[in-house]
Amino acid sequence: MLTDKIRNKENGIILYGITPPKINHTEEEIKQIAQKHINRISNLDIDGLVLYDIQDESDRTDEKRPFPFIKTLDPCEYSHNYLQELKTPRIVYRAVGNYTTETFTKWLEFTKEGGQQVHSVFVGAASHEQKNPLTLKEAYKLKREVNNNLCLGGIAIPERHTKKHDEHLRVFSKKDASCEYFITQCVYDVEAAKIFLTDYAKYAKENNYEMVPIIFTLTPCGSNKTLDFMKWLGINIPNYLEEDLKQSGDILHESVKLSKDIFEELYTFGLKRGIPIGCNVESVAIRKDEIEASVELLEEVKAIIKKYS
Amino acid sequence: MLTDKIRNKENGIILYGITPPKINHTEEEIKQIAQKHINRISNLDIDGLVLYDIQDESDRTDEKRPFPFIKTLDPCEYSHNYLQELKTPRIVYRAVGNYTTETFTKWLEFTKEGGQQVHSVFVGAASHEQKNPLTLKEAYKLKREVNNNLCLGGIAIPERHTKKHDEHLRVFSKKDASCEYFITQCVYDVEAAKIFLTDYAKYAKENNYEMVPIIFTLTPCGSNKTLDFMKWLGINIPNYLEEDLKQSGDILHESVKLSKDIFEELYTFGLKRGIPIGCNVESVAIRKDEIEASVELLEEVKAIIKKYS
Question: Is B21 strand, coil or helix?
């Protein structure tokens, strides 16, 4: 069970991440997409399914968004209404800025019914759709009050550590606020990840804290345009990896190969230092070859975990 | 011959770097040190001997210098007066801030006598011993006027690239000013080096420039105090490498192993991208085991170059 693995701080937790269908689909189309999701995911031997809560994010930069933003279904509703057949535990992302105290409390009440099947990650986003948006701090407080047993994760961004050198402190502060694991933004910058992990382990040791799992997100990249989109989202891709990707002639498979190497480096790095490392393979694209690449990457990751177990 | 290898932009140029004896030695002691240098270096199969021009550098930081500063003999005079027996081509560092136009011109005249045996690297330092110190730009101009045939190198600092992103431009600007190769500061930050090399190769390609050799300096580290001194000098050591070094129980051999891995990564990186990479093994310590470690590292580096040739 995912909850147990998280609470035992196990190595090698494996997640698979998808986005719910876009809201401009018909009911019939959504059901078809859901069936495909169920078929694909029930065949994967994973610990949990991540469902993203997609936001526009256009207000975080002045640069033009490479892809237009189209809203997606609420991940919790999609999971509950369309994926019931699927028995895989869920990790549902919640962009807390889209909620008020009332609507968030209501959702937290609802999560009690899901028991150990429902996990969540709160994202403190810059969306201002609500007049009195919830802050991350308030959301953590409500979670502890309404459903403290909900197995909650936080976001970790190793790239931020390179500039501000305090990502490990943010992580421990979120841990104090009841986060039991962390999922990173998509990682192509291994160096930033290693520097973050080192400070994370050092701080834990110095303060006698236990380390919770850090789950690194890997994302196959299907085209130069997707690469630009990743950069637009704030993902740091070292210049030499960007060149390798662009000059490979097959960016999708080169990105799978790179991501596999990145995971192996981080997983063995964690093993050596006693840091529980997991993996979240993100499949946010809809092209068939990109979906297949995500499944291929997932299998590679499982092989790496097996190799070192 | 070193000059030919540089001008042919060859891969795998190998240098060995030493500091001249300190000035507080007696004439007899200096002769003894010189004899040891001659014995050691004549047994090494290298392309050139680097002789450093040591400066205090205390004015570049407010932090306390971990080791006291003691002046060393002028590297050019030491080479000329004490190492004549040694036939290895020399690369003599010149801290141009210690000269006036007159004294520097005189030295440049003197270098003509050495022919292809004498090479130099000018360092634009913050030393203010002279009232009208020479700038790097003026020194390059004098070199072109007085002895344009002198095979001149420049300093490259990949770490600087991480912050300012313009080290490749500095390098090409120095190349325009007649530098024919570059020697880096001691490198423990492979990531910075790879990012710098990528921009160096990209800029060369975009502007149809030829790439000159980049010679990476490796320095075995014999103690925690030396490690602190390296950091004081501005050398970036990623936190995880610093931990590996400190926790190894044998920092000297761990640093040799790390330096060897760093060189292999950079050398193969250069081979893949057509960038001529060389190596300068620095032996600035005087302890016997540290000197032996530098010779061991040099042999490892030679084996790597052979392996990929």
Answer: coil
